[in-house]
Write a structure and sequence with these properties.
Elements (H helix, E strand, L loop, with lengths): L1 H7 L2 H39 L2 H15 L17 H21 L5 H30 L6 H12 L6
Helix pairs in contact: 2-5, 3-4, 3-5, 4-6, 5-6
C-alpha cells in the first residue's frame, strides 16, 4: 500500500495526470466545436428549405437559364438591376456567398452542405456565371461573389460522389 501512496505523490504521476486532464479537455473542446458546426449547418440547411425568397430566386435563375430568349445578364445593368427579379438573384447569390464564408471560417460543416446542396449550388453557379461577370464589370469590383465562386471551384475539383 505504501508503494501506491508514494506513486500517487510522485511528480511523474502528477505530470501524467495533468497531461491526461489537458488531453481530455482538448478532445472535449474539439468535439463540442465539431458538434456546434454541424448543428449550425443543419439549422441553415433547414431554414433555407422554408425561405420563400431563396426558393423563388433559385427558380428565377433556373428559368432564366432554361429559356432560349432569356438573358440573366440584363439584371446586372440598370435599369433592370433595380427590378424585383434582380433583387431575387442577388438574394440567392448573397445567401450562398455567406454560406461559403461560413464554411471558410469553420462556422459551417462543408461536408454537410456539400451533401445537402451540391447540385443546387453548382447549378446556380453555372446559370449565374455571366451575371456575376457582368456585375463585377459594372461595379468594377472583382471581389463580388468571390467566396461563392471559390466554393464552387473547390467542389468542382472534388465533386460529390454517388453512392
Amino acid at each position: 500500500m505504501d508503494w501506491l501512496i508514494s506513486s500517487i505523490e510522485s511528480a511523474f504521476f502528477r505530470n501524467v495526470s495533468f497531461l491526461v486532464g489537458v488531453l481530455v479537455a482538448v478532445i472535449s473542446v474539439l468535439t463540442v466545436r465539431a458538434t456546434a458546426r454541424r448543428k449550425q449547418s443543419a439549422d441553415v440547411i433547414f431554414a433555407t428549405r422554408n425561405d420563400e425568397l431563396l426558393r423563388n430566386g433559385i427558380r428565377l435563375i433556373r428559368e432564366e437559364a432554361l429559356h432560349t430568349n432569356s438573358n440573366i445578364r440584363k439584371y446586372a445593368k440598370p435599369p433592370e438591376a433595380q427590378t424585383e427579379n434582380a433583387a431575387a438573384i442577388r438574394y440567392v447569390l448573397n445567401h450562398f456567398e455567406y454560406v461559403a464564408v461560413g464554411i471558410q471560417d469553420g462556422i459551417y460543416d462543408e461536408e454537410m452542405f456539400k451533401k445537402a446542396s451540391f447540385s443546387t449550388i453548382m447549378e446556380i453557379r453555372r446559370h449565374s456565371e455571366t451575371y456575376i461577370t457582368d456585375v463585377r464589370s459594372e461595379q468594377n469590383r472583382d471581389t463580388i461573389y468571390q467566396e461563392f465562386c471559390w466554393l464552387c471551384e473547390r467542389w468542382k475539383k472534388a465533386p460529390l460522389k454517388s453512392r
